[in-house]
Amino acid sequence: MEYFHGSLEAIYWEVETASAFVIANLPDSVSAAAVIAVATRTGAFAEVRVHEVLTEKQLGDVVALAQGSDKVYCPPGWAATQRDI
Fold first, then answer.
1. What whole-number distance in Å separates Cα of residue 77 and Cα of residue 33?
2. What is the pLDDT of residue 31?
3. For the chain, which ranges sit under pLDDT 50?
4. Does residue 59 lie in a domain region?
5. Looking at the domain assignment, is residue 61 inside a domain?
6. Residue 81 belongs to a domain
7. Domain range for residue 50?
8. How many domains, in total, are found in the chain?
9. Alpha-carbon gap, residue 20 to 13, rounded angstroms
10. Nearest to 48 by CA among 59, 39, 57
């Protein structure tokens, strides 16, 4: 992980399904994708899933950005629901 400027935080093994859960701290999504590319290249893993976790500040930024999009984006059919019938 050091090559990707990250660190391995923990590995958990699930006995019943022979699954491994890895918690790693990586600087960005590109680094995570590179780690997956290296790990899956061996063929040792049948399936790899990535879940990006946001910090509290990042979540606040997401909410602020989403709220600001109301003026820019309206889902299809939205205008029809806003009319007085």
1. 36
2. 94
3. none
4. yes
5. yes
6. no
7. 2-73
8. 1
9. 5
10. 39
Do residues 6 and 25 touch, judged by C-beta distance below 8 A?
yes
CB 1 within 8 A of CB 9: no
Give a yes or no: residue 84 inside a domain: no
The two structure tokens encoding residue 21: 């859960």
**75 three-state secondary structure:** coil
Helices (H), 42-82: 56-68, 78-81
Distances from the Cα of 32 to the Cα of 3, 37, 55, 83, angstroms = 12, 9, 16, 46
Are the beta carbons of 34 and 13 closer than 8 angstroms? Answer: no
Q: Which of 26, 24, 2 is nearest to 11 (CA)?
A: 24
DSSP summary character for residue 19? E
Report the C-alpha gap between 17 and 25 in whole angstroms: 25
DSSP SS3 for 40: helix
